[in-house]
Amino acid sequence: MAATGTAAAAATGRLLLLLLVGLTAPALALAGYIESSQICCSPWSFLISTFKCLIVDEINALAANAGTGFAVAEPQIAMFCGKLNMHVNIQTGKWEPDPTGTKSCFETKEEVLQYCQEMYPELQITNVMEANQRVSIDNWCRRDKKQCKSRFVTPFKCL
């Protein structure tokens, strides 16, 4: 659930940034005219430079997700031995079980990387890293049974 909240906050932040850019576009155009008239070092100059950087960063982030639709979460997998592996659906931000119904815990970084590549074939996953904090994952079921519980685990980020 913590990962979902973080993803929602990031998506909300992006939407607010785009709204702010939409509202300030006329001011940015006017400020470009003022800057070209040799009036520099005004409070507007700093603000405009900051907005330009934010806009470029946001466009680059959206372009990176162009082939996958709008991503609301980063690709991650989680393991708990004896239970099915879980992965984040990057469009919904929700944890989902292994689609084959067979994959459980891995012991090497290479196995984790390979699993990330299987779960996210549309992304170019080349590395994995253990996340900084644990998350609670609901409805985590045993491989052979329907007993489902919540578990706290440290997921792996698929990079």
UniProtKB/TrEMBL annotation:
It is found in: Cell membrane. InterPro entries: Amyloid_glyco (IPR008155), Amyloid_glyco_extra (IPR008154), Amyloid_glyco_heparin-bd (IPR015849), Amyloid_glyco_heparin-bd_sf (IPR036454). It holds the Pfam family APP_N. Residues 1-31 form the signal peptide. Disulfide bonds join C141-C148. Its main location: membrane. Keywords: Copper, Disulfide bond, Membrane, Signal, Transmembrane, Transmembrane helix. One of its GO terms (molecular function) is heparin binding. It comes from the Eukaryota. Residues 71-159 form the E1 domain. It is a single-pass type I membrane protein. GO terms for cellular component: plasma membrane. Belongs to the APP family. This is APLP2 isoform 21. It comes from Pan troglodytes (Chimpanzee).
